[in-house]
Amino acid sequence: MKRIALFYILLITVCPAFAQNYDESKVPHYTLPDVLKTTSGKAIKSEEKWEKLRRPEVLKLFEDHIYGQMPTEYDSIRYALTEDDGAEMNGRAVLKQVGITVFRKGKSVLINLVLFVPSQAKKPVPVFLLINNRGKENTDPTRAKKSEFWPAEMVVDSGFAIAAFHVSDLAPDNKDTYATGVLQKLYPEQLKKDNGMKAIGAWAWGASRVMDYFQTDKDIDSKKVIVVGHSRGGKTSLWAAAQDRRFAACVTNCSGNTGAALARRQYGERISRINASFPHWFNNNYKKYNDKENALPVDQHMLIALIAPRPVYATNASKDLWADPKGTFLALKAAEPVYALYGIKPELPKDAPGIDKPVIGHRFGYHNREGEHNMTSYDWANFIRFTKGF
Ligand code: GCU
Questions:
Q1: Is the whole-model pTM more than 0.85?
Q2: From atom 13 of ligand 1, which residue's Cα is the shortest distance away?
């Protein structure tokens, strides 16, 4: 027993990547990159200059240094729809299952979309789209299994449609096989580039193809699609919303490192650790920032800023220090100056709110739920409140 303890102490001493900090007093002093200053030092003072000069620059920095390129061209896309009478929810919603096949250079990828649309709806409805990184049973179309992770009944009863696809349709979440989906089939050239997309990029790409489908579905208000993700899925929902401005809003649940939490705080999970455990998530260039957070030309507040002026809801859970609740709140707060360029007044309090005290504004939502790393009906109830007057 003692030997094991000694081994861990040694490991922590010799290998800083394993020493994660949970002590606020040990958060180093840091300065965030100025989201409103271009790389060449030009101050950005208007929406127009942000849109024209700085936003494209910031997007490219995230692409080159973290998430990889996002290819948008493909040859064709086909939708195979099956619709039923809604027996799964006793008539409260109609179930649509859509096979979305995307073709490029003779090869294809199939994304399976599950979608429930409230049957009472008189006009096209807004939809929550979950990027599902957990088991497929969480989004069971038959509703034999029900899960708080995707509480379809609750969402439908609130007047929204709810949809989901599984990340494995795009890229298996595995360092040895992640390339066997979209990457090898549609965009093999991406695998050769240091700024090429990897699994998280492929999942976000999938969300955009679902968006392509929504634009053809008369039951859905495609101007009101809220992209949702938990944890690694929440890192993806941010990247999807940053890249694809058709998403009207973003929910990033417990997304932590390389999601909504500031990297420079070096609190909880760090870049070196995420790259070691999940080398298939981010591009090759990102590995250069292991233990070098301050060398990054961006921090995560800038990813949120790319979503401006659209609404963003970020969450944490009180026991999930790994995902740095305070660093998540601070990232949202540090994105506010970009929203201000669009005439949006700061909505967030100076300090992070207490546990189970949601802050729900027009553009920003935040809460730190009591409990573990998860996405629950408490979280969803707040997402619904946030997007209600949509
Ligand atoms: C790991 C990983 C996190 C990630 C989480 C998840 O804990 O370190 O970065 O968010 O898995 O996806 O559940």
A1: yes
A2: 231
